[in-house]
Structures are given as C-alpha cells and as structure tokens.
Amino acid sequence: MKMYSVKALIDNALFYDAEALGLTREQLLLRKLSELSDEFMDSCESLGIVSPICYDEEQNMIHEGCHRLIVAYMLGIEEILGGTYLEIFNSDFLDRQDELGLPLCRE
Question: Where are the domains of the chain?
C-alpha cells in the first residue's frame, strides 16, 4: 500500500459511487459530506484515518473510502493510506483491524 495525496485524489480521482449512482463528482462529494456524523469526524480527528481507502491507480478510481477522504481533506491531512482490494487483503491490516476496533473498508 502507498500514501496518496488527499488533494490530488479529491481533485482528480473518479469515484465508483458517483458512476454507480449517476452523479457528478461535486454531487457525490456534497452527498457524502452531508452523511458525515460528528462522531466520525471526532474519531478521525483524534485517531487519524486508520482504515486505508481502496483506490485503483490504473482506473484512477476510489472504490471505498470517500467519507474518509473527505474528512482527511477537511482536517488538513495531506496524505492518506490506500491500495487496491488485493493489496489491503494481502497486508497486515487484516490482522490489525481487530486491535484497532475497526472493520475493513467501512466508513
């Protein structure tokens, strides 16, 4: 897995959810922003963005983690951990997710 520029992804990446729902990038980001809870924001602010986003470089597409990406942007976090589904499932993240108290790739 690698670290990715939050701003570059916000500005340039395609979002799977936008394509699946027939929304523009701006419509999707506004929709996801409206779904954020104060608890999620507080958790990300205190713990950081713990769960990686699922991002495919070849497609330049974010498959999972739009909420996390938006929160990272709002908090001024410059880079976020990401990888393809295969990279995430083959990493030690699966072993660590129980100790972190987080399910894999969930908002």
Answer: 2-100
